[in-house]
Write a structure and sequence with these properties.
The complex is a heterodimer of chains A (about 180) and B (about 475). Chain A is mainly β and about 180 residues long. Helices cover about 5% and strands about 55% of the residues of chain A. Chain A is elongated and about 70 Å long. In chain B, strands 11-10-6-12-13 form a 5-stranded parallel β-sheet. In chain B, helix 8 runs parallel beside helix 11 and helix 11 packs across helix 12. The N terminus of chain B is likely disordered. Classes of the chains: A mainly beta (about 180), B alpha/beta (about 475). Chains A and B meet through strand 1, strand 5, strand 9, strand 12 and strand 13 of A and strand 1, helix 3, helix 4, strand 3 and helix 5 of B. Bound molecules: zinc ion. The site of zinc ion has 6 residues of chain B, from loops.
């Protein structure tokens, strides 16, 4: 799920940046520092959308560096248990498959793949129904449900399932081939 | 913590919503302790400030939920929707407790059960780091997967083949160890013959040079139609992946089946425990027997491929390396070509349509044994000046090897003897062999038979006096 929230970060700036464009310097450094990172609590910071406030700088003794508390608005992405996501399959093996929804990696084990889908080894490993009508392979797009999430300081990892109504392949790269 | 007191969340009229937020945010409590709301570029010495989700400066009287004017209220709205939808299915706790009763937690990835998604603390089971850095599977689950996979594989008329890298499929040398005689490989690439150039790689980023063994591409292509293949190396993971991409640039042979040193469950040993393949259907190609302590019966020992001088030196070989003599193993008659024939033979014996036994109960190790016994079938061997005196002849590895290759061994000469294996042409038995027109061969003849999978020409293994 995406959220638009306000976060705060203490930014340290070298004195050489002090001047007319101090604010721009702060903002560009902030973007570089936080966009694409993962905060354990809020999920992935997708993009900064605005600056709420820049607080009073605090000079650090002995270094000349100044710390500014910056409040910024940003879009974050964080998956929740029970959430339905669309994801792209990245790897298929006999234990299940891995998929990615943006920065989030999801594993769907073969326990949570419908029983009528069998693993097929070979040049392009895949899970296929016995009649061959549905196939999951690398690059397939699938709709899955999150049943577990683990959010670390730098990454989000989920366990997912496609063993439920309306879940499974939504586009099959092999279909056009 | 200074801002927490002011946080409007706590003054919000919507207590349920606040509770929802807390619950959602706490659901991330598996997380590392990095829970400070305000991130500091440098943690020490900084005051911790909590900003909570308190963006709704108006105190959340409910009305702004509808106006959607400010970003913070829009955020609130999204959260509200999340809250409402989550009430339909409170998956966090009750769903999990239901599953707890029935789930045996067959495997754990990233601290969560791969089947029910519950958090699982227990770190038992076997690690499958080459699939995912945090994957562990319980023994029952591995057995289930193996059984299921074997059925599937046999239906496709395939077996498993585990391949070692160094000295089996290729030879690598550190750039720093390239000798003066070999500099032409590095410095005169343009003038190298095509066959050499296309199989020789200078990998600056890992400071290595790698030469693929002649015939390896044909070997992999042919073998892939009969076997599901694994790479299994004592090298480290980045090296293993680099080599896999040289051998399999199209990514069709190995996929995620690349096992490296860090994946072994026992030090200095390679085990089939991390291979999702039933042992009765696995063949192994490796130049080092000692690492396969538990799986010698699955092993086809490979003659070492030494292309680089440093490789010869490493194994204490005095002879010139292939690179120094600007030569290479014969493509059509080299080790990989001959072992491919053996693999094909074993495969066709295993899947022989004439066989009446249950295919699930067949054992490729038995087939391997049987094929090996054909190599020196009909030979009767007497050894002289090969074993140390006092040595119990039947326990010597050459004696055992000769028997595995189908020969009969004896300590006494008689007319039925066909070969006298000797280190010294001057012994009584050696002289007897010459007089009786029996073959007199060096012990290397037996080792060669083991590598070549056929009876080697005796005149190439004469005994010097
Ligand atoms: Zn479970």
């Amino acid at each position: 799920m995406f959220f638009h929230i306000v976060l705060e970060r203490n930014m340290q700036l070298h004195p050489r940046h002090f001047g007319r464009d101090l604010r721009e310097k702060l903002v560009s450094k902030l973007m570089k520092d936080v966009e694409g990172t993962c905060s354990g609590r809020h999920g992935f910071i997708v993009a900064i959308t605005g600056i709420e406030s820049v607080g009073k700088g605090l000079i650090r003794d002995g270094t000349g560096f100044v710390t500014f508390p910056v409040k910024y608005q940003c879009v974050v992405f964080r998956p929740f248990k029970g959430e339905i996501l669309e994801a792209v399959v990245t790897m298929v093996n006999k234990m299940g498959f891995f998929a990615e929804a943006g920065p989030v990696q999801i594993f769907v084990s073969n326990h949570l793949i419908p029983d009528d889908m069998e693993f097929q080894s070979g040049d392009v490993p895949n899970y296929t129904t016995s009649d061959g009508s549905v196939k999951i392979q690398k690059e397939s797009e699938v709709r899955l449900k999150i049943i577990g999430t683990r959010v670390d300081a730098t990454e989000i990892f989920c366990i997912g399932t496609i063993k439920d109504d309306f879940l499974g392949v939504i586009s099959d790269p092999g279909a056009n081939a | 913590m200074s801002l927490t007191a002011d946080s409007p969340v706590h003054s919000s009229s919507s207590d349920d919503f606040a509770a929802f937020l807390d619950a959602e945010l706490d659901s991330a409590s598996d997380v590392s302790p990095d829970q400070h709301e305000v991130e500091n570029e440098e943690a020490e010495g900084e005051e911790e400030v909590e900003d909570e989700e308190g963006q709704d400066e108006d105190g959340g009287d409910g009305d702004d939920l509808d106006d959607g004017a400010s970003d913070s209220s829009r955020y609130y709205k999204i959260l509200c929707e999340a809250w409402i939808s989550s009430r339909g299915e409170p998956a966090e706790t009750s769903g999990a407790s239901l599953a707890l009763d029935i789930c045996s937690h067959p495997g754990v990835m990233g601290g969560m059960c791969i089947r029910c998604g519950q958090k699982v603390e227990n770190e038992s089971g076997v690690a499958f780091g080459y699939i995912h850095k945090n994957l562990r599977l319980a023994d029952d689950e591995i057995a289930r997967l193996r059984d299921k996979d074997l059925k599937n594989l046999l239906r496709h008329k395939k077996l498993y083949l585990v391949l070692d890298l160094d000295h089996t499929l290729l030879n690598s040398a550190r750039l720093a160890d390239i000798s003066a005689e070999e500099l032409y490989l590095k410095d005169q690439r343009e003038v190298l013959p095509d066959a050499l150039r296309s199989n020789l790689f200078k990998l600056d980023w890992i400071h290595m040079m790698t030469k693929l063994r002649p015939f390896v591409h044909t070997f992999l292509k042919e073998a892939s139609s009969l076997f599901e293949m694994y790479i299994y190396t004592m090298g480290e993971r980045p090296y293993a992946l680099e080599m896999a991409s040289l051998l399999d640039p199209g990514g069709i042979y190995f996929h995620s089946r690349v096992i490296a040193q860090g994946d072994c469950t026992q030090r200095h040993q390679k085990g089939l425990d991390v291979v999702v393949g039933q042992e009765s259907a696995v063949l192994i190609l490796d130049d080092t027997e000692a690492v396969w302590g538990k799986h010698k019966e699955n092993l086809i020992l490979m003659e070492r491929y030494h292309f680089f001088t440093s490789s010869c030196r490493q194994f204490g070989l005095k002879c010139k390396s292939l690179s120094a003599t600007k030569s290479d193993e014969n493509e059509a008659e080299g080790a990989l070509a001959s072992v491919l024939k053996v693999l094909q033979q074993i495969h066709s014996l295993f899947f022989d349509p004439e066989r009446r036994d249950n295919i699930m109960e067949r054992d490729v190790r038995q087939v391997l044994k049987q094929v090996r016994k054909e190599i020196l079938k009909g030979c009767k061997i007497v050894f002289t000046r090969v074993f140390p005196t006092q040595f119990q002849a039947e326990n010597h590895h050459l004696w055992k090897l000769a028997e595995q290759l189908g020969a009969t061994c004896s300590t006494e000469v008689d007319q039925s003897v066909t070969h006298v294996v000797s280190m010294d042409a001057g012994t009584d038995k050696s002289r007897w062999a010459v007089k009786e027109k029996k073959f007199l061969v060096h012990p290397r003849w037996i080792e060669a038979a083991n590598y070549l999978w056929r009876k080697p020409l005796e005149e190439n293994f004469l005994v010097s006096s």
